[in-house]
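Entry 14: structure prediction run for LIV-E family branched chain amino acid permease AzlC. Input pasted below.
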Amino acid sequence: MANRKETFLFAFRKSLPIMTGFLFLGMTYGIYMNQQGFNFLYPTLMALTIYGGSVEFIIANLLTKAFDPWAVLIVTLIVSSRHLFYAISMLDRYGNTGWRKPFLIFGMSDETFSLNYSTKVPLEFDKKKVMFTITILNQIYWVSGACLGGLFGSLIAINVKGLSFVMTALFIVMMTDQFLREDHHFSSLTGLFLSLGILAVTGKTYFMPITLFLLVVIFAILEKRKERFYDFD
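Run finished. Output tokens:
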């Protein structure tokens, strides 16, 4: 069984692409908060407690306006609704993680979910420890980036508009890597074409939760049929 150092190094290597994206975008968020008139403590504490990057950018804008808790609640639920489906996918993986489970749930960002779900952990490593370490590292990257951005925001003149595309680019790279490692591409192509179809029909506001819901239904039906087929055999 691998020791702590070996587990840390394995998780660190897997999280390196996330570190690049999180530090860069976290600094962008910290700078953006500074430009909105908040000192570095605000982005640092928000990154530490909210841990939903897209929501944090939205909240930063709402903090400069009249406080409307219902609007904040509704926007947050819509933007973060995808995490409900992430949770369904991780029920088995997080089921027997003991005291690590609360933090694994809290730290399940888009990128952390993708890594913990897709990483093939060698037999000599404890999978629970690897997932926990990846989650901690990703949390550190994001909070550190937000703190640094807040600290240096007043010293750097930068236009943060459009920089959030860095995470889109990161997801494209991760998706491509997973696509190339798949034995068949049914799930990837289903997700791609269903997403494009729903986006064309509903627009960008609601296509994410609708797409995720339909994907869960489709694969739940397929899994049931597969179980019946094996039972029949």
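Notes: The two ends are 38 Å apart (CA to CA). Will compare against the previous run tomorrow.
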